[in-house]
Design goal:
The structure is a single chain. The chain is an alpha+beta fold. The chain has a single domain, classed as SH3 type barrels, CATH 2.30.30. The chain is built from 2 helices and 6 strands. It has a 6-stranded antiparallel sheet. The longest helix has 15 residues. It is globular and about 35 Å long. 24% of the residues are buried.
């Protein structure tokens, strides 16, 4: 598999899940640093959804990537550590500004 890089949007198999977790084969945005992704055999990612969101920043952020087939929102509160075996094909990339906003949203949720 090609290197998994921070900021990439990739397909991921999120099953099995419990409760309100995002399920199925869906796009995720990779948040973890490249060196972590290479050495740990895991990545830290947030799930994307194509369903319009009623909550706003810091819980969700609309992405503007032209690479995505549908209008998409990052579910910032749906952060997961995933084995690299769950990660599939690259769909696109978030802008540096979007990535920065997502990290800022996480900091608001978990505190700094």
């Amino acid at each position: 598999m090609a290197r998994i890089l921070r900021g990439e949007i990739r397909w991921a198999d999120l099953n099995p899940v419990r409760g309100s977790e995002q399920a199925g084969l869906r796009p995720v945005l990779i948040l973890s640093q490249d060196v972590f992704n290479e050495r740990s055999n895991t990545v830290i990612a947030v799930a994307l959804t194509s369903k319009p969101q009623h909550v706003d920043f810091p819980l969700t952020l609309e992405l503007v990537s032209k690479d995505l087939p549908k209008k998409s929102w990052v579910k910032i509160s749906h952060i997961r550590t995933l084995a690299v075996e769950r990660i599939g094909k690259r769909l696109g990339r978030a802008t540096p500004e979007e990535l920065s906003q997502i990290i800022e949203g996480l900091n608001e949720i978990i505190g700094t």
